[in-house]
Amino acid sequence: MNNKITLVECPRDAMQGWANPISTQTKIDYIQQLLRVGFDVLDCVSFVSPKAIPQMADSATVLQQLDLTNTATKLLAIVANTRGAEEACGFDSLSYLGYPFSISETFQQLNTNSSIGESWERLQQIQEITISAKKQMVVYFSMGFGNPYGDLFDADVITEWAEKMQNIGIGIISLADTAGVASPESVRSITADTIRNFPGLEVGVHLHSTTDGLPDKLDAALDAGCFRIDGAMKGVGGCPMAQNALVGNMDTESIVGMLKSRLYSLHIDPDALQKASFMATQIFNVTPNAIQA
Q1: Which CATH superfamily is domain 6-284 in?
Q2: Beta bridge partners of 75
């Protein structure tokens, strides 16, 4: 098997909800090391309200200090409104703008203080800004495998919104298990249906999971034909707006090990990955774990 995986590393997701302040220089050094690993995309900064996400208030400074001369990794920034999109589009170093579009009405209010309808209007405006800047949008379907709030969810909801995204020129969507509620069966079926129904879209997964649940969820996504996978070193992160429903990311070290064991094509420097993993243990005060070859 030699299917090429698009591997997306998400330090922004790891840092945004971290309780202790992370210095700007530490962020720069960490992201610089991640750029040496060989990830396809780094979801590394966000241009959102510093009142809502104070940890990411220095995103512009971080971007300005990165050295991109010896990396093929592309950078992504999360935005939540047109102001953030306009600011992000001022950086040539950014290739992608990511937008969290919730399938759950409750979570859309928690995350952006707006309704799904208002979010849809905002997204269309952001898409216009992104096209004008010759960048590309990635739309994350937050609560894309269900939600813990009792809001209506089924496969038809995904189909309806994926069609709307395609109609306005969105080329990439990522199905996000924001609160870690997905089962392997739902990951497999929803991802496979979306890929089959929308061959013109690149469909990824941004799965949150406990360590024990990671292998089955990742296998389910791969079985569904998904070749765009998000992760975060040490599994740190998750959306702070999910409140008590917070579940961490799938850890990148395990993802890389599983993909290699299944003979997927990766271009990862193992030494650089090991060093990045060690840096993550220091930044996030977590226990080191072995990198699988």
Answers
A1: Aldolase class I (3.20.20.70)
A2: 42, 94
Q: Which residues contact 2 (CB under 8 A, 6 or more apart)?
A: 263, 264, 265
Q: First-to-last CA distance in the chain? A: 17
**Is the Cβ–Cβ distance between 96 and 39 less than 8 Å?**
no
In whole angstroms, what is the distance from residue 248 CA to residue 240 CA?
10
Residue 128, token pair as written in the block: 């216009």
Please write the tens of the pLDDT for every residue from 162-181.
Answer: 999 999 999 999 999 988 88
**DSSP code string of 64-131:** HH---TT---EEEEEE-SHHHHHHHTT-TTEEEEEEEEESSHHHHHHHHSS-HHHHHHHHHHHHHHHH
* pLDDT digits 0-9 by tens, 32-70: 999 999 999 999 999 999 998 999 999 999 999 999 999
Tell me the three state secondary structure of residue 236: coil
Where do we find the tokens 């939540």? 80
Q: Is 56 helix (H, G, I), strand (E, B) or coil?
A: helix
